[in-house]
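Support reply, case 0932

Customer input (verbatim):
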Amino acid sequence: MKKYAMVMMLVGAGLVSGSRAEGTLPVVLSMKGIYKLTNSQFSPDGSKLIVYGFLDNSEKFTMESGIQIWDAQTGKLLHTLGGYKNKITVVKFSIDGTRLITGCGDGTVKVWNPNSGELVSSVRPNTYGIKELAVNSQLAFFATSDSNNNIVIWNTIKGTPVGKIDEDQYGYGMLEFSKDGKMLIHAAEDAVRIRKFDDLTTIKLIKSSGSGMINSDTTLLLTKKSERIDNAANLYNVESGKLSKEFSNLAPGFWNSIGFSPDGSKIWSWEKNGNINIWDSKNTKLLFTMKKGTRVSLQKSFGPDGFSIAAEGDGHSISILSLNDGSLTKVLKGHSDALDHLSFSPDGTLILSSSNDAKIKVWNAQSGMLLASMEQLPNFSKTDLGKIVANKVLSTSIIYPGAFSQVTFNSNGTRILTQTFDRLIKLYDSSSLLSKK
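Our regenerated output:
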């Protein structure tokens, strides 16, 4: 069996950095998001950019939302999708990219054809706001759950409801299909339920907190130990429903303190003392520990053939470590302030980083060479700044000029999307770097 050299990234001190041959990348699109709390994402094939948000009209007590679809290759605006009278809460594509599915705060579900901009359907099954949306990767169905944990099954092509589950218990934010599409996994207040998708009967009931996550092959489940305990988690075997391991003394915040690697074979946990532990998810054996050196928070950044871990620190550098033994192999230096995002390109050959210094950098993952560096300075007005603080998007103590809310590659690595907290969105052409791998 082929073995991959899996790596992780940790901000801190270490070895010498790679040589530099940096330049800038062409800007395909530069825009200020027209909606408050703007969000953006790529289509599955990376050819389209979706920008959405809402306009909060406090005087009329309305939150009118909208969606823009941009051509990620040319930067041309393709479609503007409207008709929303409340905040858009969830947006997902169908697996083949032929449908754009949205859920709204007033319970409305709209299904669009993103190629033509045509509205396929608009249905409001109830008045509870849509919280979660899961797309079946094998069958032409999707599922939604609302704030009252009512679950509706939909036909993806027609955008029509075909089934419903009424739990009448508050949902805690987990709704997933199994990898083979045969199971629906969802959380309620008292337990995680695993159902057969063909008849929606419950086949497993795991008594645990409703907050949780599933690994990529849907064999393992991580949940908060309880809603009252924020620094402990439980690992369950999905097939048997049995508890495999308890994790305690985690750093505050379940979603930022533990998680799976992309292939599901490893678990990382961030301890209260600042150490990061790497575990084998099958036998729950501790593989190694990275000693503390983090300053603000832990961010996950995974390589496609394994995973990496990025932790903000004072060193402003990126350390490359082997997942086999935790050994440090390389350090990338170039940022002058703390990092806020790190990620690999889909093929694992490039590393993308952003920092409080308002710089976005692209590195060769093997050589450590700095390939490109761009500066993106946002422009906060006093009015926008006050609203950002009021909405708790940022606390006053960490508002800085280079605050990036999103930095990511598209699915083929040819485009880089960056977004600042003042809604400045830029799309860079990174296709030229793929030949420098």
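We compared this against your earlier run and they match. Two observations from our side: The domain at 7-436 is CATH 2.130.10.10 (Methylamine Dehydrogenase; Chain H). DSSP finds two helices and 38 strands in the chain. Please reopen the case if you see a mismatch on your end.
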